[in-house]
Amino acid sequence: MSDYNKNEELRYQFILYINDHIVCQRYFNIFDFNEESLESMELKELMASIAGMNNGQHGSLGIIPRYLQKKSLTYLWDNYNPYMQQTEDNIRNVVDRKDNFQFEIKIDDKCVAKTEFSGNNFPPKIRYAVDVREIIPEIMSEIRTYLSQKTYTIDSKTKPWKKSQKEFLVK
To answer: Nearest to residue 140, comparing CAs of 63, 82, 86, 73?
Structure first.
């Protein structure tokens, strides 16, 4: 019997929250992880590609918001009633309750990146019944791709500051 411990390799995880309640948490491994990725500009791009709401010049969506948008369109068309008259009673303000999704990447139980986006753009039935199992492989693939690149863009202006603040920064 070998001393192989599967949990030793699963030191990477991502967590999706809504209003600080866990929706999805997955542990996975990354082969050829590059430590430089944690101080790179690509880490910001990674978070935008997964949970961004207004990416690029044309405002494209990240993986999670795009999935929620697709589910929202299906839900809205399935429940659309062209004969129902809209009255003051059935109009709801989408910002009455603030719902935020948070997406976090952890390495060895330490948060290395976290981002947040508003869930108020999606119907409550979609927000509170989030089932992201379909996109988990896509999310893990995106994280693996970004965190195992050979070269990264490091911001030379902030690198000396980070070194001087090393004891104060959480890693």
So the answer is: 63
In single-letter form, the type of residue at position 116 comes to E
Residue 163 domain-assigned?
no
Q: Where are the alpha helices (DSSP H) in 95-152?
A: 124-127, 136-147
pLDDT in tens, 45-66: 999 999 988 877 667 899 999 9
Domain that holds residue 32: 8-80+93-158
**Residue 117 is inside which H or E element, if any?**
strand 110-118
How far apart (Å, rounded) are the C-alpha atoms in residues 34 and 112? 13
Token reading at 23? 């929706």
On whether the pTM is more than 0.90, the answer is no
